[in-house]
Structure formats: C-alpha cells, structure tokens
Design a protein that fits this description.
Number of strands of chain B: 0
Structural class of chain A: alpha/beta
Number of domains of chain B: 1
Number of helices of chain A: 11
Low-confidence stretches of chain A: none
Mean pLDDT of chain A: 91
Oligomer: heterodimer
Number of domains of chain A: 2
Shape of chain B: globular
Largest sheet of chain A: 6 strands, mixed
Largest sheet of chain B: none
Low-confidence stretches of chain B: none
Helix content of chain A: 25-40%
Structural class of chain B: mainly alpha
Largest interface: A-B, 31 and 23 residues
Radius of gyration of chain A: 22 Å
Strand content of chain A: 25-35%
Distance between the termini of chain A: 27 Å
Distance between the termini of chain B: 26 Å
Helix content of chain B: over 70%
Order of helices and strands of chain A: EEEHEHEHHHEHEHEEHEHEEHEH
Chain lengths: 299, 265
C-alpha cells in the first residue's frame, strides 16, 4: 500500500503566543492535485513550511511521502519540489546560474528538463535576477521547483505575478505532473484557479482546516455574483424565486444577483428579457466558506 | 563557482576579501615604509614612549621600544588590527546566516536536499577561508614592505605575522556566527561580538592597572592574542590553540542552535 503524499495529524504551530495553525489533520493522496485554500493569514504558508521542515510544529505530526520531515528532511526534500510564497533568489545571479546552483545542490539535474521548462514558461535565463520582473522571477522559481521531476510539488501561491497566459501554461504543466502520477499540493486564495485545477480542496480558516471537499462540491455551494444588464428596468421579484438565487437587487436596468450552484435557471429566466450584458465577479472565498457552514458541510 | 554552498559563499565574499585584504595590506606596507626613519630617530621615539602613561602603553600592546620592528609594528598597527578586522568578521558572519534568512534565500537553500548542519559548516568554512585570505594578503603586503626597506625579517615570519590575528578575529566572528545561527535578527549577534572585541581590548588595557580588574585579563580573549609576538619572541602555541578552541566551541553551539530553530524570514 502506498503511503499518502502528505498526511498531518493534529498539526499545530504557534509563534510565541500568536496563532499559526491549530490541529490540522489532512491527507493528500498520491497523484492528485490538492488545492489549499484560505485567505491571507489563514495559515497556508505555515502549514507548507512545516511540511518542508523550515519550521517545527508546536505539537502534532506531519508525514511527507511517508517520511518524517524532521528526521528524514534530506530525503523528503530530495523528492519534493517547493516554491515559496515569497520567492527570494540571489539577485546578482542570472536565472541560469541560480538553476545551476540549485542543480548542484541536488547532485545534478538533467539540463534537458531545465531547457524544456524554460521554453514552456518562456523564461529568460540569461539576465540577472535583479533585473527581472516579479513574474519572470516566479518562472525561475517554478523551474527550480519542477526541474528534478519531484514526486510531490508543494507550491505556495504559484500564480502570483504570472500574466494570464503564463498562468494557463502553469496549469497545463501541473496537469502534466498529475498525468505522470505525481502529486501537486498548492495553496491559493483564488477560487476559480482551484476549481479549474484541483481534484480536492482543503479550506483553511483562521488556522483551522474547516473543510476538505471535492471541487464538484465546492462548485455546488460556491456563490457567484453577477450583474445582468437589460435594455430597461426589470422586475426583480420573479428572479428571487429562482432556485439557488440568494440575493437580487435592482439598480435601473441592472440586476445584481448572487447565485449558488447551477446558473441554468437564472440564465433561462434572464433570456426572457432583452439581455445586453452579463458581468461576472470572481467568486468569493468567504462566501463559499459560509455556504459550507450553512449546509453543515464544514468539519 | 556555483558548485557548493562553500564556493558560492566564497564567491559572494570575493570583493570584500580583496577590499579588506588590499586595504589592510596598504596600511601595513606604508606603515613599514616609515620604520627606517622612526628607527633613525629611535631615541626620540623611545623617550616619547617612556613619557606615555601606562594606560596608554597598555593599549599599544605594552611595547617597550619603538625602535625594534616588533615594537614598532605592534605599537602602530598589530595591537589594534584584530579590532579592525573584527568589523569584517562580525559583519560577514552575521550576513552569511541572518542575511540569508532575512532575505528569504535561506528558504530556497534549505528546500534542497542538504542538511542544515552542512549549510552551517560550508558557510563557516567560507568565512574561515575569507579571513585567511585577507590575513595572507596582509602578510604578503608586510613581506613586500619588509623587502622594500631591506628588513632582515624572514619571509615566513612576515606571513606568520599576517596570520597571527586570524585566531582572535575568527573567534569574534564565530561568536557572531553562532548567535546568528541561534537568534532571529542581527542585533544580539552584532552587539555581543562587538562588546567582546571592543570591550575585551579596553579591559585588557585597563586590567594591569587595577588589582580588581587583573583577574579578568585572561577572560578578555584579546590577552591570548597580544601575548604572542611573531616579530619578537614568537607566537605562543597554547594561546593560539585556546583561541581556536574557543571558535570550535562556538561553532558547535551554532550548529546545534541552527538545527533546532525555525527559519522565519
């Protein structure tokens, strides 16, 4: 039987008296893309740093690829690729030099894989890191995390700073990792990103893991907000009766709607009027979390 | 140069090594150039020396004469040289650990399959190599100065004189290094190591003047340096070993502490 890629049991970290994470028990299976969702300050980075043995738990345990990060840290880090949330690279090195250094610390990495990743991410490896934009540095960090084809990728907010095109490339690369049977654990505070990629998500709230759900369940309860713009004022009452619609407010020809679950009945009702535009807003993590609570889905 | 933490660290220090080595080397070279004229006017300088209060003499390494090469070089440079070099040693030592932790580059380093103790040892080895290189440049500059003024001091003695401040400076650096390994932030490491170096120098100067302070003399660390005179009676091997032993002790403390701590940028 293969051990889970990541397993934690009552994992707790306090920094002095301030809260890091409390009693996080989590299991990430091999071969899945697991999204670790939570607003800033929820404890995502703390959890990740505990898995990498950069910090030590106050109590509880973690196992990475079946190994104890404190006891077998070198072996864990040999088989894991890591991208920190706030990536810092040596500014005076070029991307190529930084990757060479990292490759030496791993006792060698196939140059071909570095070249493949650099090509896919369109990374400029010849300029000093200090002269690169945040997004271009992030690409170097991603290559560094992925170049040794690790069994487990731990990425802390990996799309930060990447333009939308490169975000897509990263999503493709992560899907390839999953197709290889390898595991991805990544943190995010962006719900659509997690919906797009993940098999399962864990939601961290104020240091506690409040839910572990499949993405299908997450989508079912996620609240979407949108503006429906008509050619003139529309009576909001019939919209309030549509299943899943949580909120309707009218402002002139625009209806602001919050809807949970399928959009189909709402769109069909809107189509009975002359609909000029639909403006959608990024789903809100807090609302998704509250929705879980309302449904009693939270642990 | 990017093949190991040791080589990378040494590579990062290259400008400092050259700057400090050549700077102190130039100071030594030009100090030596003045020696013949000081020697010629020997009586004048020795009379001046005798008029100094004992407190002042203590800070010049308790030299008896300016006219010997040992007295001249100790009084004018070697007595306070470890204090100057300590500025580099303490700054570099703290930068190697705290600097990387604060910048966040330690995260990337420790995300690789390299144990923490090896990161500490390789960085420390780079610090030792950098200080040794500076001291060698310093020694070679004195050799060049000696040749210029036609001194009969053998080349090996000049090099030994250059290397003699190394154990003491290394100890100051290692104290800073150990504290940087153990504690977040720079303040504790820099303050403690600076207090040890400057405080030790002052206390060593004052200790012989007071019955109360005298027992502290050997605890100033500086004592174990200034009692050795490569240009005079020679170095005292036991004193060098005591200083190196002190560094080893603090290195071990640093190794254990860094292995246990949280890495928080």
């Amino acid at each position: 039987m293969t051990t889970p890629a990541i397993e934690t049991e009552g994992l707790t970290k306090y920094y002095g008296r301030s809260r890091g994470i409390i009693d996080v028990s989590l299991q990430v299976e091999r071969g899945e893309i697991f999204g670790f969702l939570g607003p800033n300050g929820a404890g995502k980075t703390t959890t990740i740093r505990l898995l990498l043995d950069l910090i030590r738990p106050t109590r509880g345990h973690a196992w990475v690829l079946g190994l104890d990060p404190q006891r077998d840290g070198v072996e864990v880090r040999r088989r894991v690729g890591y991208l920190p949330g706030e990536l810092a690279l040596y500014p005076d090195l070029t991307g190529q030099q930084a990757l060479e250094y990292a490759a030496h610390l791993r006792n060698g990495v196939p140059q071909k894989e570095i070249a493949r990743l650099a090509d896919r991410l369109e990374a400029d490896l010849n300029r000093p890191i200090r002269s690169l934009s945040h997004g271009n540095r992030q690409k170097i960090g991603l290559i560094m995390a992925m170049m040794h084809r690790p069994e487990l990728l731990i990425l802390d907010e990996p799309t930060t700073g990447l333009d939308p095109l490169m975000q897509q490339v990263l999503y493709e690369l992560l899907e390839e990792v999953r197709r290889d049977g390898r595991t991805v654990f990544f943190s995010s505070h962006i719900l659509p990103e997690v919906e797009r990629l993940c098999d399962r998500v864990g939601i961290l709230w104020e240091g506690r893991l409040v839910a572990v759900e499949t993405v299908a369940d997450l989508k079912r309860v996620a609240v979407r907000r949108m503006d429906l713009v008509f050619d003139g004022p529309v009576d909001p009452e019939p919209f309030r009766a549509i299943p899943g619609v949580r909120e309707v407010t009218a402002a002139g020809p625009t209806l602001h709607v919050a809807v949970q679950g399928s959009l189909d009945p709402l769109i069909k009702a809107a189509a009975q009027h002359t609909l000029l535009n639909i403006i959608t807003y990024e789903p809100n993590l807090e609302e998704a979390f509250l929705a879980f609570y309302r449904e009693g889905g939270a642990q | 140069m990017m093949r190991s933490v040791f080589l990378k660290t040494l590579h990062d220090q290259r400008k400092s090594i050259l700057g400090w080595g050549l700077g102190l080397g130039a100071l030594a070279y030009f100090t030596l150039l003045f020696y013949p004229s000081v020697q010629k006017a020997g009586e004048f300088y020795d009379q001046m020396l005798q008029s100094f209060p004992p407190e002042a003499l203590a800070f010049l390494g308790n030299i008896r004469s300016f006219t010997t090469i040992d007295g001249y070089m100790t009084g004018s440079l070697l007595s306070y040289l470890p204090l100057v070099l300590a500025i580099y040693a303490i700054g570099a030592a703290v930068g190697l650990i705290t600097g990387e932790v604060e910048r966040g580059t330690m995260d990337i380093l420790l995300a690789h399959p390299i144990p923490r103790w090896r990161v500490v040892l390789e960085k420390y080895a780079a610090l030792v190599a950098a200080l040794t290189a500076i001291c060698l440049i310093f020694g070679l500059s004195m050799l060049a100065g000696g040749l210029t003024i036609g001194s009969d001091v053998p080349p090996g003695t000049w090099l030994l004189t250059g290397l003699h401040p190394l154990p003491l400076t290394l100890l100051y650096g290692t104290v800073a290094f150990a504290l940087a390994c153990a504690v977040r932030g720079r303040a504790a490491a820099v303050a403690t190591a600076t207090a040890l170096s400057v405080g030790g120098y002052i206390l060593n100067g004052l200790a012989p003047l007071s019955e109360h302070l005298r027992p502290l003399e050997k605890w100033t660390v500086y004592y174990w340096y200034i009692t050795g005179r490569p240009l005079g009676d020679g170095i005292i091997r036991e004193h060098v070993l005591i200083l190196l032993g002190g560094s080893l002790l603090f290195l071990l403390i640093g190794l254990v502490a860094f292995g246990r701590r949280d890495i928080i940028p």
